[in-house]
TrEMBL record:
Listed name of the protein: General stress protein 17M-like domain-containing protein
Domain General stress protein 17M-like: start-end pairs: 6-70
Region (Disordered) residue spans: 186-205
Source species of the chain: Aminobacter anthyllidis
PANTHER family registered for this protein in UniProt: MEMBRANE PROTEIN, MEMBRANE PROTEIN-RELATED
InterPro entries: GSP17M-like_dom, Low_temp-induced_all0457
């Protein structure tokens, strides 16, 4: 198995990606979501779901539900990122707990979980920083080859962030790497980041 990961500025794009991955035959158990919850928007919709998040059951609520992408996710805190809502195997790995017990912090967990799943370290730092700045990660475990190509195409065509371009944009602002000791972005800072990247042109498909 290999993993394919996409960062999304808009969670509706991430939702579309999750739906397409599932329609392509990728199991809920093999899809994971980590989304910023710095403004507390999803607290009311994430109760009693931590266990489901780790097993993949929480992903079932991501597709076809009236609540949208973030229905049925568990809440956790990641140093340097702040509060997130998360579901699936990557969330459980990041939390350092079995079966999705998302209690407590996840020190160093997100970078470690991403690199352990095969994401290059420099990309993992961009992904973690992207979540810190209000983004959503979608990661799929797939078989190498055709299924991997399909998953990558789905994420890209759902308006994923070009990781190289985003790394350069962050670097232009003085960023060098994700720092788990840094203060999380405030809701106001995240809103500014979302406005900054809202005008990105979707890919031609």
């Amino acid at each position: 198995m290999v993993s394919v990961t996409g960062l999304f500025d808009n969670y509706s794009d991430a939702q579309a990606a999750v739906e397409e991955l599932h329609r392509a035959g990728i199991s809920h158990d093999d899809i994971s979501v980590v989304a910023s919850n710095a403004d507390g928007s999803y607290d009311a919709r994430s109760s009693d779901t931590a266990d489901a998040a780790g097993t993949g059951a929480g992903i079932g609520a991501l597709v076809g539900g009236t609540g949208g992408l973030l229905t049925g996710l568990g809440v956790m805190a990641i140093p340097g990122v702040g509060p997130v809502v998360a579901a699936g195997w990557l969330a459980a790995t990041a939390a350092g707990a079995a079966a999705g017990a998302l209690a407590g912090g996840a020190t160093g967990g997100l970078i470690g979980a991403l690199t352990d799943s095969g994401v290059p370290s420099e990309d993992a730092h961009v992904y973690a920083e992207g979540v810190r700045r209000g983004g959503t990660l979608v990661t799929a475990r797939v078989t190498e080859g055709a299924e991997e190509d399909t998953a990558r195409s789905i994420l890209q065509n759902s308006n994923w962030v070009d990781v190289g371009e985003r790394r350069a944009a962050y670097a232009d602002g003085g960023w060098t790497a994700f720092d788990e000791t840094a203060a999380p972005f405030s809701p106001e800072e995240i809103e500014e980041q979302r406005r900054r990247y809202a005008s990105r042109i979707p890919p031609v498909v």
